[in-house]
Amino acid sequence: MQLVITGHIPFMEMDSLSPEEKKEAYSTVEKQVSSLFTLIDNLPDGKSIYLSLSGLTIQLLTDEDFQSGWEEWLIDRRNGSSNSAKSFTNIIARIKKESSTRKIILLASSLSGFPLTAIQSPAAVSMQITQSVKLHKDHFGTVPSGFLFPANAYLPGLDKTLHEQGFQYSFTDQHARQLSDPIPENNSAIFSPHGVIMIPSMKLESLNMLQKEKTASDQMAAVIGLEVLQDLIQGEGLNQIISVLANETIADNIARVHKELPTAHLSFSYSGMMHGEALFSHKDTARLKALGEMEGVIDAAAYKQSKSPTIKGESLIDGMLHMCACYLGADKTSQTVWLERFAEYSQSFQKQWKLQDGMPHGSASDIYTRSIQKGVKQGKGRLKIFMLSWEFPPNVVGGLARHVHGLARAMAEDGHEIYVITTRAEGLSEYELVEGIHVHTVTPNAGQDHEFLAWIGSLNIAIMTKIRSLCEKGSLPDIIHAHDWLVAAAAITARELYDIPLISTIHATEHGRNNGIHTKLQQSIHLLEEELISNSDKIIVCSEFMKQELQDIFSVLSEKVSIIPNGVNVDSVTPGSSERAIDNKSKGDRITVFSWGRLVPEKGYDTLIQAACDLKKQGKDFSFIVAGRGPLLDYYREMADNSGLGDGFTFIGFVNDEVRNSILKDSDIAVFPSTYEPFGIVALEAMAAGKPTIVSETGGLKAIVRHGYSGLLAKPGCSADLAEKIWYMAEFQEEAAKMASQGKEVARRIFSWERVSTETERIIQELLLHNHIKRGEKDEYTISF
């Protein structure tokens, strides 16, 4: 295992500190530096540790005022002996010396120690890295080969900036690897799309964590802050840390195995994300908003300087540094005072740069917007997207409608122009602007009493007619996004007629739903799926399981398929009223188990009925409620009645979201016993609602739920195992509540529609860029993150 130590000393303006505050600051520095040098002094020959210092820390440790005060404090602290303080006097010089012997291998970080994912402008991100590189050159005489992101916070596209700066490797959170595309085997290092090697890492906070990972490979890194190191090296901790250190450096390991490393797209991630931890807390919201506005001011100054080089103001670098440093040093200041001081600084900066003089509209934010959006499709620019789906709220049949709605709303909130073309349900108008989404509904000429495929054909004709009408009235869309085979004909026709790239999200396959193709209808649907997949420029699926299914059934090339796990909207599972859906008297002491979904064979409700029978035979008193409609509703009702479950098992049919949420609120456990489930958005909804959740260990469900942490996994089709898991949740309610809480955080943090929107945009932008390069056209689309 590689040990990476991070050193970021909180922002301090030495001149403004009182004598007592200075003593406290120097004491903090001494404790942290002492722990580092203690570890270094005890390292055996041939062993190395990695050290990452933020630019702010390097600047502080080389500041003349800090140095003089630091030396005086050390001598005073060590009874007037300058010799005893000598090894600590010049910290940077000592680090440089240890670096020359390879006991310390330096890693660069950002200038400010502030997460780069929270910085909006690519120019500002580049500035953070460039200036950090300059500081390493100035004070250590070299540029590190590796880069450590603050908080391990990574966003797609940051690897491009690292590559341009010459970095060979960096680090990302090991648990977030399950969101990559494709998912690497054995949690190994990978190449990013821009050729930077990404090392899996873990945040080390205790010796127990270290022991659990002591067999980790040389490609695994443990990241530890200096403030934590000083506690861990006490007693036997020092020897335990040294005992797990790799015998080979990252550079040596990479040189040996780099040809074997796969390439993968990494999603947004940061340390602790997969455990539901937040990168920023709710109290940071106002400060982050102020930083975003200040960033726009700095970019406006950069734009003005590029047009009028003679104009001078405070250094743009100092402005960015001050901005991030103020945030990182904000804990000791009340939010109101901080915001007032920051506003004063922002106004002073704008005045120096005369941002209000002679500029169009007199607004720094306007200038900023124009400077980074030359044309409507540059960077994170506005995309025009036609989404085709046979169902969309309020016409909800299954999870597809919720998926399209969640994605469309998130992309609209991100500033994209979203048009959803879907089936018109009773009472809906032809056009509505809903939550920023342009919703166009169409009515097939063939009614739903017609043969199914004839109705689908008629629906596609109506959708294509609407597409033609929209294209004639306005500009062409940048992309067509089709959802499943039911809109295949319209999507393919529009692609060919208007030469518009086509992306298709495949939510499930007919083969997977039926465990094979057995009827003429299934064969027809299968062929339509194949045609849609063949004619799509890119395919999106929700899980590794689903990607493998497409490769097995349709022989799809791996590089054509991208994985974006579904999202969940927490508000959609929040009860809107305090009324109870389950009467207390009828509920009694019963444990209520709730499930919902389409009543079709692959949802596994026959297994749930049998599990209920098993629990009843054991004398367990449960009440099972299943909501949903489908062809097997009457069959399942009869099956439950014939099993002697009485009022202990109820199929209540279709319910709207409000009723479902009320039942969910009053329930004790949520169960989803599917035998086939590409993803399982209903399980995410249950987790987001904070309910103990049990799912089948199949398909995408097993990727959502981490067994024993965010829920429980049951064997598909095994009623005895499912009954055992239900009993466990009911019997050990404290453990169940803990899993429910952790599952809720996982659902909220990782499976957000904002992340799905960002990943979808990334795939679209890459496809558009590829097409323009392929055609030899100008690079109209610039990918920037």
From TrEMBL:
GO terms for molecular function: glycosyltransferase activity. Residues 115-200 form the Glycoside hydrolase family 57 N-terminal domain. It comes from the Bacteria. Residues 397-571 form the Glycosyltransferase subfamily 4-like N-terminal domain. Keywords: Carbohydrate metabolism, Transferase. Residues 584-745 form the Glycosyl transferase family domain. Belongs to the glycosyl hydrolase 57 family. This is Glycosyltransferase. It comes from Peribacillus saganii. The lineage of its organism: Bacteria, Bacillati, Bacillota, Bacilli, Bacillales.
